[in-house]
Design a protein that fits this description.
Blueprint: H1 3-16, E1 36-42, E2 45-46, E3 50-52, E4 58-59, H2 61-72, E5 75-81, H3 84-93, H4 106-109, H5 137-142, H6 154-157
Parallel strand pairs: 1-5
Antiparallel strand pairs: 2-3, 3-4
């Protein structure tokens, strides 16, 4: 079974067994598809997966995927934009039905059910030639970085040294 098919089946199951399908007026920055209403939240600047487009509406790969599955299931879809902390809290308390983009961790698995992933991402650290390589998480914390790192996952998921946590050194020239 392909990864895409597993993802569609997983999203189908999430949508079918959603518990909060109440109808209420949609906020201004919502996208609507027909039928029963499912609710979700996106973070506004997590390109290309979730973002707010020039028209002020939720957009991105994960939004398109959620809209497509909702449409096939004949459900309305209410997507609002909020902070990551509020999104997780609203999922935990049942105010929304699903999150279209959340990386798996053992800590999160205690509170949430996960579908098969629709995206597998690999993180990398790039340093200039001639700079001493980063060999541990503590060295990484001291390094000046550009970009985004999922800080909430780093301490719980990775042992002290990169060699023990599965990070591999690969030099690209």
């Amino acid at each position: 079974m392909t990864c895409q098919l597993k993802t569609i089946i997983s999203l189908f199951i999430i949508l079918v067994f959603s518990s909060a399908l109440a109808s209420e007026e949609q906020p201004k920055n919502s996208v609507s598809v027909r039928g029963k209403k499912l609710k979700t939240i996106i973070v506004g600047e997590y390109y290309p997966y979730t973002f707010v487009n020039k028209e002020g509406l939720p957009d991105g790969f994960s939004v398109d995927l959620a809209k497509a599955v909702s449409q096939v299931m004949d459900h309305d879809l209410e997507i609002t934009v909020d902070t990551w902390d509020n999104a997780q809290n609203d999922l935990k308390t049942g105010r929304i039905d699903f999150l279209p983009m959340m990386a798996y961790s053992r800590e999160r698995d205690r509170d949430f059910d996960f579908s098969a992933p629709h995206t597998i991402a690999y993180d990398a650290f790039f340093i200039r030639k001639g700079i001493r390589p980063i060999n541990s998480i503590s060295e990484l914390a001291q390094a000046r970085s550009k970009g985004r790192m999922d800080d909430e996952m780093m301490p719980a998921e990775y042992p002290e040294t990169c060699c023990n946590c599965g990070m591999t050194k690969r030099y690209i020239t």
